[in-house]
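Async update (no meeting this week)

Hi team, since we skipped the sync, here's where things stand on the single-chain job. The sequence we agreed to prioritize is pasted below, unchanged from the tracker. I ran it this morning and attached the output directly underneath so nobody has to dig for it. Comments welcome in thread, and please keep replies under the output.
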Amino acid sequence: MVWPWITASALVAGATGGAPQIELSRRPDGYVLRARFSVGRSPACVLKTLFASENLRASAGASTEVELLEDGPRLQRVRYTERRLGMTVRQTYRRALDEAASRLDVELLESETSSLLPTVKSSRGFYKVEPGEGGHGAIVVYEQSVELEGVLAGAMVTLAEGEARNFVEGVAANVERLCDP
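Output:
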């Protein structure tokens, strides 16, 4: 099962330059996911693709609904909803684009769960897009820090460990496919 705090955050780039480097560090109340990988597209195109509102559905992972609540030139609010096995998880994120820093920041604004799943107290992350080696393609650095609350928080971190590589690799093709050079 794919959980929305892993998949609904945003689109990440793929593994054109080899296998992504992925690290998930456990904390007593959550985890930090770090990934670094390369793509065969320009940094500007990758950043544009990561932020483009028309790509939100492709980046939504297991979410069954994606609602764009606000769409500005550098700021978005997006609500992701996942309904599965009688459970509903609804999360709203703020996505802020900083083109000068070649960075997209993602922050959880609100989260609600209709089951025994742990509550996501906070989730903050970013995508940093850098020029690839020798000026070819781009390197994407992704980091997400998640704080959970509830009796099953430890179990959700274990699931996150299992899903991290699938998350990164599962959406890897999206930047390559959606980035129009």
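Quick observations from my side:
Confidence is low (pLDDT under 50) at residues 1-16.
Residues 45 and 181 are 6 Å apart (CA to CA).
Reply here if anything looks off.
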